[in-house]
Amino acid sequence: MEQVQVGILMGSDSDYPVMAEAAKALREFGIGFEMLVSSAHRSPKRTAEYAASAAGRGIRVLIVGAGAAAHLAGVVAAEATLPVVAVPIDSSALKGLDALLATVQMPAGIPVASMAIGKAGARNAGLFAVQILATTDAALAERLRQARNDMAAAVAHKSEQLQQRLATDGLL
């Protein structure tokens, strides 16, 4: 069984479809993770205890999704000395803008990295965690480099296909 190195928290189980993207990114690189629901408002003691104990359990990065007021990432960052990566969730009438603004206004001394709103942000949070872990794992860094090369090759291939389509459609 792979060692759990990343903790993924969300304020509500309704955030799962978004936060699953972080888990998928971690799984692609063979990074062990745990995922749970914990609320800064509805279960503050549970949240504080989880964050405070994470490093002692081998967690090296925390990914936190929260919508609306988005206090979860800040509370976790206040209780842990680990890197905290926030994913603003588009779960409110303001479509995640409120969560983004709350996240990027952490007070000095309690840093929280923030990704984009929603699924793209969650995927990038997972990849950012991989990058953090790769700073001390040469094999993981190489897999990350290869994934980037594969992405670039896929873009070049799509461009070639586009050129063929343009020619077929008589637009070249």
From TrEMBL:
Lineage: Bacteria, Pseudomonadati, Thermodesulfobacteriota, Desulfuromonadia, Desulfuromonadales
GO MF assignments: 5-(carboxyamino)imidazole ribonucleotide mutase activity
Residues in PurE domain copies: 4-155
Homology family: Belongs to the AIR carboxylase family. Class I subfamily.
TM segment ranges: none
One Pfam family named in its UniProt record: AIRC
Annotated positions binding substrate: 12, 15, 42
GO BP: 'de novo' IMP biosynthetic process
Class of this enzyme: isomerase
UniProt-listed SMART domains: AIRC
Record-given protein name: N5-carboxyaminoimidazole ribonucleotide mutase
UniProt keyword list: Isomerase, Purine biosynthesis
EC number: 5.4.99.18
Source organism of the structure: Desulfuromonas thiophila
